[in-house]
Amino acid sequence: MRHSWIGGFHGILLAMLAMPAVPAGAASAQDVTLEPGSGPVVRSPGDSPRESAHSDIQADALENQPAPSTDVAGYRLTVAQAISLAIERNPSLQRTRLNVLLAELAEHRAKLDRITASVDVRAGYLADVSWDPSTNIADQDLLGHTTDYGTSALLSVPLYAGGLTAARVKQSEVAVDVSKSDLAVAERELERAAYQAYWTIQGYELQQQAAREGLEQSRQAVEIIQAKVDTGLAAPIELNRFKVDVLNQEQRLAQLELAAYSARQTLARLLHLDGRAIELADRAEDVQLGPWPDDAGELVARAASRRPELAGLALSRTAAQYDRKMARAGYFPAISLDITLDAGNTALWTDADTLDQASFSPTVEVTGGVNLSWNLFNNFSTRYQVERAETIIEQWRQQEAAEYDAIAEEVRTALETWKNLERRAAGVKAQVELATENLMILQTLYNQGSASLLDLLNAQSEYRTALSQAASFQVDVVTAEYDLRWSVGESPAR
């Protein structure tokens, strides 16, 4: 069973680093629900927080997650909550969601365009005036005007278009699925960025603990050497060397603190949170590891059936096939049933605004017929459109094959990374134990005068290096586990 290979090593590192345990389910004074587009909404402990809506790809893994708790200092989040908040609140992802809405609107438009209906309203006025050139005055007896009012309606129903109408509707439906697939890909990328930022923070925290442990050992050595210098048993240069070493370690610790702060800001930006600090509720040693098969073929097949990247490319190829159908429709005639209704009247008015009854002509006219149009001289353009569509289909097919190869390589690399860490676990554990033992021995020998200052400094350096590598190793293991889950299309925070 691969899932237990790191358990004993976690216990040793906890003892070495004196890592405080995080109480499971620790409650704070207030709960906070982070709603998209708004700030934190504070709720009293008796209220039940609003359940967040997740996408389909996250629903199984993130369902029923408790709302993140907060206090005056900041937010306390599990990795699952961090991923959920990133998907709900990240502005870039919100913009991607709008593409789905636009695709759905285009689908509705394509379905409505199957039938053409229009209504036109007209109104006209024509004045007839006779002028006397000699006086430049209008002849009042000859004044008159004509009015024309009416409306017309057209209904056109396509009977045959070479498959153009059906292909256009089908393509619009596939375009919606493509946009949803793109959204799923964007959600997964954001999911990976969120958990990587989350565990990066914890990596810096563990390295800080290791650095503080090593710094404490060095400070104790400085006190011992100071006592020896005071009694004349050691030269001042030895004390100065240790003090320089302590200052270097303090600088290193300050750098780690700054890096941890920067990592927290990165996570806060992904989650679209305010500037308050983020506290991690999940610990690396609590993550369930594996089990994973030795053969990558099974995982590659699992990834091929789950990864939305492949599904999106297949849908894009299908959309291109409908493009080809629409292009081929140019080879065939278009037949439609057209019905027109026209109603109106035309009247002539005399100079006394008297209606000329003889000219009054109200009409209601209904016409209908089958319209056939076929551009026989447009075949060269149609052929170009068909060949272009076929080329695009082949491009999508090749891109789909390339994406499959990339995913397969990603899965194999993730599995090999996981196996490599499994093989290294015993060595990292032994390195910490030996470095600790060597430091204790050399401290004793140095106090007895049997070891040199250089030997003690080297032992302390090896001890700090072992602790730092062990701290990084813990997070490397968890990140490798999450990367492997992600590569096969699973939700890492399962």
Which sheet architecture does the biggest sheet show? 5 strands, mixed
Give the number of domains: 1
Series of secondary-structure elements, N-terminal to C-terminal: HEEHEEHHEEEEHHEHHEEHH
End-to-end Cα distance: 19 Å
- Percent helix range: 55-70%
CATH class: Mainly Alpha
Question: What do we call the CATH topology?
Answer: Outer membrane efflux proteins (OEP)
How is this structure best described in words?
With 494 residues, the protein is an alpha+beta fold. The chain has a single domain (2-102, 172-317, 389-487), classed as Outer membrane efflux proteins (OEP). Helix content is 59%, strand content 16%. Strands 2-1-3-4-9 form a five-stranded mixed β-sheet. Helix 3 crosses helix 5, helix 5 (164-230) runs antiparallel to helix 10 (453-487) and helix 9 runs antiparallel to helix 10 (453-487). The protein is elongated, with a radius of gyration of 39 Å.
